[in-house]
Each structure stands twice: as structure tokens, then as C-alpha cells.
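Try this one yourself first.
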């Protein structure tokens, strides 16, 4: 399921695959934060109960307290991008998962976001991506915000992935896309402008959903 999910589930897959429901529920009571019941999460996400159990065990292995803070999230993420600096992008990604803005990610927040990214509709994914790029959460994406995210992605991928960068490639990349997105030329991109532009341009869609490859 990608970098972060791979880390959270790696140890789980090496364990015995079957445990009864009582054991699963008992595990959930032994952490500082107890997630919502699996039935409720199954109804709210696109994951089955079995998938949620696997995800929970992996989450608990990495985060025994039942929540993950930003430093831990950055540490997990950095392991998958040794040739670059993933800290800035991980910061933005953490904020997107932290829907309650309390500085930590609960299991429920993690699987809700993951469900959207992996199993959501195109519209769902684009709305989530818009939220990621809307750094100050004012409902608009400015050129500066988009540049910050794209620059963070380039920094994370590292010099070995992009060995021949010349000039300010992130800024050039953003300038071209922003010109297409900002339909009314008011200097900001709304959610509808963002969704429409991505749906009309397959290249832009792939670029704006680059997070799917770095999850």
C-alpha cells in the first residue's frame, strides 16, 4: 500500500494471520487512544474489517500509544527517501491527515485519509489533494502554496531521482499548471477550478496526484 502503510504493516504480515475478535478488541483497550469500533470504521471507509485489523496492528506496532505525532511521522517517512529530504513534505502530509488540528494523528484519521487516497473516487482524491495544497486552509490555493508543496516533493525525491535539474524547475512547473488552473485569473485557485483543470488535463491529473506514488 506504499511507503507509510508498508512500514505500519510490515511487522504485522510476519505474524500469525488469524486472531479472534476478542483478541482484536482487547488490543484496542491497551493503548492511550482507543479507536472507534471496527464496524463503524468499516461503514465510514472503503476497507473491510479484516483490512482494518491488519492496518490497526501495523499502526499499533509503530505507534503503541495509539496516536502518531509529527516527529514520528517524519521519521517513518524519511526511511523511504534516503537520498532526499522528506521532512517538509512529511510536514504537509501530516497536517492533511491531522483533520482535528491537534498535532497528532489518530488511527481513525489515518484510515479515513488512506481510504480516500487508495479507494476513493477521482473527485474524492482531488478534494483531498486540494486540501493538501491549501496550506493555510483558507479555501484557495495560491501560487506560493503550490510552489511550496511541489518544491517539497522535489526535495524529497532527491538529486538521484532528478540528476539534471536546471534552473528553478518547481517554479516553472507550477507557473505552467497555475496558468491553466486559474480560469478567472484572480491569482488563486478554487476547489472547482482545481478539480475541473485536473479532469480536463491527464498530465496535470497525474502531476497533482503525485502523492499517490510517494505514499
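Now uncover the answer:
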Amino acid at each position: 500500500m506504499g511507503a507509510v502503510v508498508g512500514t505500519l504493516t510490515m511487522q504485522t504480515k510476519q505474524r500469525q494471520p488469524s486472531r479472534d475478535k476478542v483478541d482484536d478488541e482487547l488490543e484496542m483497550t491497551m493503548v492511550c487512544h482507543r479507536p472507534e469500533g471496527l464496524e463503524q470504521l468499516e461503514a465510514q471507509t472503503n476497507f473491510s474489517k479484516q483490512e482494518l485489523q491488519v492496518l490497526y496492528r501495523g499502526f499499533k506496532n509503530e505507534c503503541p500509544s495509539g496516536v502518531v505525532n509529527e516527529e514520528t511521522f517524519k521519521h517513518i517517512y524519511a526511511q523511504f527517501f534516503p537520498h532526499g529530504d522528506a521532512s517538509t513534505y512529511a510536514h504537509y502530509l501530516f497536517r492533511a491527515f491531522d483533520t482535528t488540528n491537534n498535532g497528532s494523528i489518530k488511527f481513525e484519521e489515518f484510515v479515513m485519509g488512506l481510504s480516500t487516497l487508495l479507494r476513493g473516487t477521482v473527485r474524492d482524491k482531488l478534494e483531498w489533494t486540494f486540501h493538501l495544497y491549501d496550506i493555510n486552509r483558507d479555501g484557495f490555493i495560491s501560487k506560493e502554496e503550490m510552489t511550496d508543496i511541489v518544491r517539497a516533493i522535489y526535495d524529497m525525491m532527491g538529486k538521484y531521482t532528478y540528476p539534471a535539474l536546471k534552473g528553478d524547475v518547481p517554479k516553472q512547473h507550477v507557473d505552467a499548471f497555475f496558468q491553466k488552473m486559474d480560469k478567472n485569473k484572480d491569482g488563486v485557485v478554487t476547489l472547482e477550478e482545481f478539480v475541473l483543470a485536473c479532469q480536463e488535463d491527464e498530465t496535470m491529473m497525474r502531476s497533482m496526484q503525485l502523492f499517490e506514488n510517494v505514499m
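Discussion: The beta strands are 67-69, 104-106, 141-142, 188-189. The first strand starts at residue 67 and ends at 69.
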